[in-house]
Write a structure and sequence with these properties.
- The protein is an alpha+beta fold.
- It has three domains: 109 residues, Phosphorylase Kinase, domain 1; 171 residues, Transferase(Phosphotransferase) domain 1 (Transferase(Phosphotransferase), domain 1, Orthogonal Bundle), CATH 1.10.510.10; 171 residues, EF-hand (Recoverin, domain 1, Orthogonal Bundle), CATH 1.10.238.
- It has 22 helices and 13 strands.
- It has a five-stranded antiparallel beta sheet. A two-stranded antiparallel ribbon has the order 6-9. Strands 7-8 form a two-stranded antiparallel sheet.
- Helix 13 packs across helix 19.
Length: 512
Amino acid sequence: MGLCFSSTAAADSPPRPAAAGGAAGKRERSRGIVACGKRTDFGYDKDFEARYSLGKLLGHGQFGYTYAAVDRASGDRVAVKRIDKNKMVLPVAVEDVKREVKILKALQGHENVVHFYNAFEDDNYVYIVMELCEGGELLDRILAKKDSRYSEKDAAVIVRQMLKVAAECHLHGLVHRDMKPENFLFKSTKEDSPLKATDFGLSDFIRPGKQFRDIVGSAYYVAPEVLKRKSGPESDVWSIGVITYILLCGRRPFWDKTEDGIFKEVLKNKPDFRRKPWPNITPAAKDFVQKLLVKDPRARLTAAQALSHDWVREGGKASEIPLDISVLHNMRQFVKYSRFKQFALRALASTLNSEELSDLRDQFNAIDVDKNGTISLEELKQALAKDVPWRLKGPRVLEIIEAIDSNTDGLVDFEEFVAATLHVHQLVEHDTEKWKLLSQAAFDKFDVDGDGYITSDELRMHTGMKGSIDPLLEEADIDKDGKISLDEFRRLLKTASMSARIVQTPRGIRMS
């Protein structure tokens, strides 16, 4: 069921008109109105015919056709997506093409994204010249497998490549929004051919703190939050979770005869891990899929975290783990927290073991370029500069260092890093009993006399702060009895998690 919904729209963007090029486009042309695409100079090179020779048709969509082509100078074979300007009737269609080219440029050079060479135009068409992938779709290879299943090792190789694409997109402020097997091609027919993401037609940039409010994607792979009209980068990870489930067992995790039925399954039910072959699949693989198919996007693993999971790591090692936007987000948020919340997070961080911190260790190592065990101001600047939507300047980075640096040596060590980057909501949702034990242990570090409350004297003793401690207590002291209970302490910690960025927006759904 290859349902594909409307074009993209960010949280505070006006609703897009119905896609031009169909009946609406024909009516416009019949009235003699020149299509917007025909009136637009895209600013692309104008010498396509001189540089490339079109060959056989490879496929087609609503607005354009994809051909094999040959570079006249080098003889290299490429793929060319040719888009008819006459079908770009409305401005939104022009913007869609410009955005697709912008996205391909942003991801240029990534090993698992189809390589973008150049964009051209003439009076009638826009041409997007890309790497030619001749190994077929991932979907075809799945169907060709015995029982339509991959071995765990082969599945992990596939999933790792998709996660790398998602993580790279998210660092650029991009959400793919249509992760599915049909949108991944193999470079060649070789068994070990790299996988390439090829279709970014529904992808879009999203501003920090915003969400998409429209429903886009393919029915089998759509995330719950997309159906609730408040989605972001996390939806890509859900889709990869669905693909992983299919790779491992040959079935879809959510199924019904109708699209509405599929959506109800996605919103209400959990995947079945009891039927064969799941009893024979390793606990690590099952744990991985379960942590990707979490309905609450705040508790779902991020793409970078998923790459650190034991099941997907290459040979037990983390190979080229990209920076995690959620880690960078948490560091920025840490600056805004009250002093008590910062101390509480440090106490919680100290209760976790090395296995529970493996993904954060990978992130720390990715930022610690000189591998001396600490993160300097310059190293943090380099890391935060990779978070394209934010691009924090020097003074803000120094502010983050100063907030995280509890021992005031001007550097961030691993323990300080963990306190500032913990995904508290994941701790709460993944294992309730473990959360209770860890939060109790963190609470006990403050509750010196063990009476079940943190008093102002105990807080002063733990923090070493002088003067009135009352302002620190106030935030957590919900019942205003002058002391903090375990429940109040847990509630404070839970607020130090990525918020559910709910945006109230007009409702409206269009399908194409």
